[in-house]
Amino acid sequence: MLQQNEKFRDGDRSLQKAVIIGGGISGKLAARVLSDYFQEVIILERDQEPIGPYPRKGTPQGEHLHALLFAGSDGLEALFPGITEQFHSSGAIKINSTQDLAWFHHGVWKLRFDGGDSSTLQTRPHLEWHIEQYLKRIRNVTIQYNHHVQNYVFDKEKNRVIGVKAKDKSGSIKTLHADLIVDGSGVSSLTSNWLNQQGIHIPEEKVKIGLSYISKFFQLPENHERDWAIKLVYPNPPHEKIGGTLSKVEGNRYIVTIIGYHNEIHEKEVLKTENGFIELTKRLPKPDIYQEIKDATALSDTSVYHVPHIIWRRFDKIKNLPEGLLLIGDTICRIDPVFGQGMSIAVLEAQELKKLLHQNQTQQKITATFHKHAAKIISPIWNMVLTEDFRYPETIGKKPDALSFQQWYAKNIFLLSSENQEVFHSFIKVMNLIKPTTILMRPKIIKSVLKRAFSR
C-alpha cells in the first residue's frame, strides 16, 4: 500500500476530506493529487466496480480511439511513477512517434523519420484500469461505486459547498461532508444546472461540429510489409468530412475509428448490415484502411458516439463561484476529440492543481486560482482546435480572431510537414502540447512558409 504523508492546511487546521464526483480519468487524476494533501479522498462513481480493462457504461466514448499526447504521457508518469511500464508490460504498444505513424493529412502524407520520441498505443479501458489499480494501493483513497451524486450541500450564508448528497445502489440517500468537492463527472455534470438554480450564470463558448465516431475492433491478416503501427487518414476540409484511424492496441488487436463532421455519416446505413462498417471505409480520402480490413476478422460490434458540439464553460469568469467547489476535465471543457487532447488537458490541469496545493495557498485561493490557471491551459488548445473546426462552413459558433490568417499559416505548416523535417518536428511538439505555438513562428519556419506559399 502507498501511504501519502503530506497534508494541506487551511488556516490552522489540517484538511480532512475531499470528495470527487466521477471516477473517470479526470476524477482519478484529481484523487491522485489530493491524496498527497488530504487525510481522506473519496471518489463517488456511478458505475459498478470494473472486473477488468473493459468498456463501462459511464464512458461510452471508451469504445473508441484514445490517445495520450507527449504532455499527457509525461504528466501521467510523473503523477503515477512506473505506470508507463505497467502499460507496456500488460500489452500496450510502444511506438516511435514519427517513424511508426503513417499520417495522411490535408492531402499529403507526412514525413516518417526517427524523431527520438515514443508514444503508447492502447485502449482507454486499458489505460483507465491501470490508473484505478494504482489508486487502490493508496491508503487514503477509496472509491465508492454505484453512487449517483444528486445535489450539493450548500452553506448559502458562507457561499460555500460543504458536501454532497448521493444515492447508493439500494436507493438510500446519504450525505457526505467534505472540505473540498471536485466535480470530474464530465460535460453533463450536475454543477451547471445547480449553479443556474443558485442564480449564478456560467459564461460559455459553444461550437456546433456535428461529429460522429464509429469504431470497431479487428484482427488483421499477417502482412510483413506493414511498416507502421498506426495509420491516420484525415479529411481535407472543407470538401472532405470523413476521416479514419487504424491503430494497433493491446491484445494483438487493431481498432478502427471513423469520424465524420456535420452528420456526414449516416449510422443507420452503417449498422444495417454486417458489412456496413467496411463499406464506410471506402469513403475515406485514401483506400488504405479499407484495404487493411476488407479481409480482416471483426472482433466486436460497431460502436457509435456523438459529439454534436464542443463547449468551454468559463468557470474562471464567475466572480461569485461558491468556495469549496473545484471543476476539472470535461466538466470545464469538452474539446473536439479528433485531435486527442482531452485526456492530456486533464493531466495538465491535475499537475497545475498539485502545484497550487504544494504552494500551500488557502483553499479559497486554490479553487479560484485553479480555474484561472486551467483557462490558461485550455485557451491556446481551444484556439488551435477551432482553427481546424472552422474550415467547415457548417461549423457554428464564435470564431477565433485572425481566423483566416491562422488557417492559411497552419495549412502551410501541414503541407510542409510532408517535405520539411524541421517543420514537422516542430509541429509534432506543438500538437503534443510540450511546446507553444510560437515555435512555429521562428524566422526559419516563417521563411519556409513564405517560400512555399509564394513559389506556388
Gist?
By secondary structure, the chain is an alpha+beta fold. It has helices at 25-34, 70-79, 83-89, 124-135, 191-197, 267-272, 276-281, 288-293, 342-358, 363-389, 403-416, 421-431, 443-455, and strands at 9-10, 13-14, 17-21, 40-44, 93-96, 101-105, 108-109, 118-121, 141-144, 148-155, 160-167, 173-177, 180-183, 204-219, 230-233, 242-249, 253-260, 297-298, 303-313, 325-327, 333-334.
What is the alpha-carbon Rg in Å? 22 Å
Q: How would you state the average pLDDT, rounded? A: 93
Poorly predicted runs = 5-13
Please tell me the total number of domains. Answer: 3
CATH architecture of the largest domain: 3-Layer(bba) Sandwich
Give the termini distance in whole angstroms. 63 Å
Secondary-structure-based class equals: alpha+beta
Measured as a percent range, the helix fraction is 25-40%
Give me the count of strands.
21
Any idea of the CATH class of the largest domain? Answer: Alpha Beta
State the major sheet.
9 strands, mixed
- Name the CATH homologous superfamily of the largest domain: FAD/NAD(P)-binding domain
> What is CATH's topology name of the largest domain?
FAD/NAD(P)-binding domain
The portion of residues forming beta strands comes to 15-25%
Q: Please count the helical segments.
A: 13
Taken from the alpha-carbon principal axes, the silhouette is globular
Protein name: Putative NADPH-dependent glutamate synthase beta chain
GO molecular function, one term: FAD binding
Pfam families: FAD_binding_3
Domain FAD-binding: 18-359
